[in-house]
Q: What sequence folds into this?
């Protein structure tokens, strides 16, 4: 692509006079991308997350060994080396392969929690904020009850009730992480519900349901995305914590938290068993945090009208 | 117009933005004696930025330059920020549009006036209080002692703006810049506030720069009018001669407002010419 | 001539504050009626109460022969639309004009959307080129034109105007007032217009009501006002104030 065509494409995207729905949308996305990419650290965060996605998608190709079946006879607790990059654990399994497969479980947890918790929070928050009165009081007191407990303790209680396992861990984390989202969505709703543009839609005869769904929710989504992204690190850590306590993923699943838990016994002599999954959690959490910060700059509804 | 109080020559204010430089003020020149000068223009004409540049309140990222920007012989662009601060509020004062935003919400009106006075002059507390009360009386607040102890949110818009004027005038400034001082007020209150301002300016022999979008109001209040368009002065004219304004923009601005007793349907609209901005 | 809007003894109370204290008025079909007053006079509250945005404490409102209850049905909003004061606040910040104008059509299940949107944009002098812009890509005057287009797209018979030009520059104000007069003539609309500016009201309206502190001060025709044939001191004060500053 020559410099000229790039230039004209940019002009097309940044045009003040878009001629089609598509151009208007792409133009907006482009402006957000420019703001996002101006932040170097956010790009680093995005690269980490993309790397996580790639690793998870191609785990079969990238992992040289099976994540669950080890060589108990010859390869127990080997230090990192050419054959086993990150060493092996007490059952002779290749830690590198386990971490690669573990990426899948991390993504599984994070995505499922986001899919369950964010919409619940959004729905509860916007309805409470828009309806006001009794609806608001009831919904927000329920939210307060959930917020009153430490997240991990509440998750522990749920897992204890539901039984251990990664699905139940996901469910427990989701149940404990929606209240902050409801708070954010409600606060955001309160700032827009009395604006003239919402009144204008009311004056067209729109139903409250339509107003919340089509006019208020889109305004709350960007702050929610930012918050969810920033929370991802916490979700990973909670999942790892549950795994560590033996209430999350069950052996032999290669979940990072559970891996640290089993490495704990050899932490003084065979440090790599716990260090490798620990580093993986650290890097991915950092990636999500950096990404979230970048998104905050790019999507902040208060910075201009974009 | 015996002695020149303020001399502005080729004033420019430039803002850097994502898409390049924005020239808010592009070479404005005028001089002011002890008189009332109106600066009129529509939004984006640079009238407020002109006032702010004189006051030294331009945002730090913007650049201000001028061949000359002198107040009473002092070159405002070369003195230190400290000297500038000492001038501001003492010899040059500014009234902003909405008293709600320019008065400190957590301090009583009286204390704000006293503080202003005491930062610029060494006076005792009792003396400052006496002068503040006198000042509140001068802006025709009926019960100064009561208003002295009120917080800004406890008074009406007109009262707040009077308190603001009192605060600005208590140090006895020589130049007053009023940026849309009455636009947030009801019409009847507006005239009361203007009357007070007019009396004080006349009594104290101050120079006044009255910045407004309302050409008719400004022309009825000021001695001279500077009309700005797109960061430039398009016309300077005596208020009494406004009817004979030469520039089509000035004439258009005067014409396009509905007037009671002059039926025109449709109203004449402004046909903006690109050469006005050149 | 039949009545388009009749208001009788309207009271509106917000948390014990009486915003309207028994106001009555009648607007004839096809008439342009003005409400003048200063802040706190209740003129905007009156408009909002008619649209159902503020609750009625007592009194009745009748629009086109139908007495309104607590809630307004969809048919009401096809008949009565409103233009707000602040052009920067009345357009959704994340929607293109296309979406904005589509919304009323979607709510009322009107099929020929494409044509109506293009016609509406043409009618307010914006044209098709504006269709996919966002509100932040428009000037204040252009935004107010969009707000007018949105109000007109349902083809109402009554347009409520809440200080539609007070946030605009004088030259833009003239353009918007001209536009409003033009659409009124073309569509034979009834206007109920609120303003603090007597000159605008006398320019736009045939009759007007002066309001103060939630009460009607007096009802006048535009020609009575122009001829200074007013009976209340308050109105006389307003008239004097609208002539600008006079040095004594």
A:
């Amino acid at each position: 692509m020559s410099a000229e065509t790039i230039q004209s494409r940019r002009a097309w995207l940044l045009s003040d006079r878009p001629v089609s729905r598509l151009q208007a949308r792409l133009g907006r996305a482009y402006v957000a991308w420019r703001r996002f990419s101006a932040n170097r650290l956010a790009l680093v965060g995005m690269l980490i997350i993309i790397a996580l996605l790639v690793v998870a998608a191609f785990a079969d190709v990238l992992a040289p060994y099976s994540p669950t079946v080890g060589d108990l006879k010859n390869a127990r607790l080997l230090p990192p080396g050419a054959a086993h990059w990150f060493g092996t654990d007490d059952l002779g399994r290749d830690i590198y392969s386990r971490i690669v497969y573990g990426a899948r479980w991390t993504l599984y947890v994070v995505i499922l929690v986001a899919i369950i918790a964010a919409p619940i929070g959004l729905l509860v928050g916007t309805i409470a904020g828009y309806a006001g009165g009794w609806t608001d009081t009831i919904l927000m007191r329920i939210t307060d009850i959930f917020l009153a407990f430490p997240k991990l303790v509440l998750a522990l209680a749920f897992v204890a009730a539901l039984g251990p396992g990664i699905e139940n861990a996901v469910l427990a984390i989701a149940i404990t992480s929606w209240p902050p989202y409801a708070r954010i969505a409600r606060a955001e709703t309160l700032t827009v519900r009395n604006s003239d543009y919402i009144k204008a839609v009311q004056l067209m005869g729109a139903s409250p349901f339509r107003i919340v769904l089509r006019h208020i929710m889109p305004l709350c989504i960007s702050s929610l995305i930012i918050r969810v992204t920033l929370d991802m690190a916490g979700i990973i850590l909670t999942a790892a914590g549950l795994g560590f306590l033996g209430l999350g993923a069950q052996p032999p699943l290669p979940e990072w938290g559970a891996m640290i838990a089993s490495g704990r016994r050899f932490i003084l002599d065979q440090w790599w068993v716990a260090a490798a999954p620990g580093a993986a959690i650290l890097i991915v959490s950092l990636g999500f945090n950096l990404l979230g910060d970048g998104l905050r700059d790019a999507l902040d509804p208060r910075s201009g009208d974009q | 117009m015996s002695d020149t109080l303020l001399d502005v020559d080729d004033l420019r204010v430039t803002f850097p933005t994502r898409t390049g430089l924005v020239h808010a003020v592009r070479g404005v020149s005028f001089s002011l004696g002890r008189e009332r000068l109106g600066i009129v223009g529509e939004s984006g004409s640079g009238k407020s930025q002109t006032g702010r540049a004189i006051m030294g309140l331009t945002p730090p990222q913007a650049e201000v330059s001028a061949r000359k920007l002198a107040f009473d012989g002092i070159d405002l662009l070369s003195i230190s920020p400290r000297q500038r601060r000492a001038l501001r509020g003492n010899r040059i004062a500014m009234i902003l549009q909405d008293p709600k935003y320019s008065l400190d919400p957590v301090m009583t009106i009286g204390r704000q006036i006293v503080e202003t006075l005491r930062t610029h002059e060494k006076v005792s507390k009792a003396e400052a209080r006496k002068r503040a009360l006198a000042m509140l009386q001068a802006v025709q607040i009926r019960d100064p002692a009561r208003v002295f102890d009120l917080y800004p949110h406890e008074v009406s818009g007109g009262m707040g703006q009077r308190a603001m004027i009192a605060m600005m005038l208590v140090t006895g400034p020589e130049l007053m810049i009023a940026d849309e001082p009455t636009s947030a007020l009801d019409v009847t209150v507006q005239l009361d506030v203007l009357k007070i301002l007019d009396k004080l300016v006349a009594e104290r022999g101050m120079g006044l720069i009255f910045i407004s979008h309302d050409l008719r109001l400004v022309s009825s209040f000021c001695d001279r009018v500077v009309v700005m368009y797109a960061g430039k002065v398009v016309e300077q004219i005596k208020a009494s001669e406004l009817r004979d304004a030469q520039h089509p923009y000035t004439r258009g601005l005067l014409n396009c407002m509905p007037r009671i007793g002059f039926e025109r349907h449709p109203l004449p609209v402004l046909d903006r010419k690109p050469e006005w901005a050149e | 001539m039949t009545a388009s809007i009749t208001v009788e003894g309207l009271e509106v109370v917000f948390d014990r504050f009486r915003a309207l204290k028994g106001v009555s008025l009648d607007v004839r079909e096809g008439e342009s009626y003005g409400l003048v007053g200063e802040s706190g006079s209740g003129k905007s509250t009156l408009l909002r109460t008619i649209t159902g945005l503020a609750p009625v404490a007592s009194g009745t409102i009748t629009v086109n022969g139908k007495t309104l209850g607590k809630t307004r049905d969809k048919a009401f909003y096809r008949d009565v639309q409103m233009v707000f004061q602040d052009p920067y606040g009345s357009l959704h910040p994340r929607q293109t004009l296309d979406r904005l104008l589509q919304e009323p059509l979607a709510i009322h299940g009107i099929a020929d959307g494409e044509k109506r949107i293009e016609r509406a944009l043409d009618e307010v002098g914006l044209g098709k080129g504006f269709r996919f812009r966002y509100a932040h890509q428009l000037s204040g005057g252009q935004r107010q034109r969009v707000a007018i287009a949105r109000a007109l797209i349902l083809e109402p018979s009554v347009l409520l105007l809440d200080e539609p030009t007070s946030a605009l520059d004088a030259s833009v104000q003239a353009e918007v007032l001209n536009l409003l007069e033009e659409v009124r003539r073309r569509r034979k609309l009834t206007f109920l217009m609120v303003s603090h500016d007597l000159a605008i009201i006398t320019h736009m309206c045939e009759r007007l009501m002066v309001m103060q502190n939630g009460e009607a001060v007096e009802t006048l025709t535009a020609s009575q006002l122009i001829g200074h044939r007013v009976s209340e001191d308050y109105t006389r004060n307003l008239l004097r104030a609208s002539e600008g500053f006079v040095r004594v």
User: Anything to note?
Assistant: Chain A touches chain C at residues 16-21, 23-24, 28, 195-197, 199-206, 210, 214-215, 218-219, 301, 304-306 (CB under 8 Å). Chain A is about 75% helix and 0% strand.
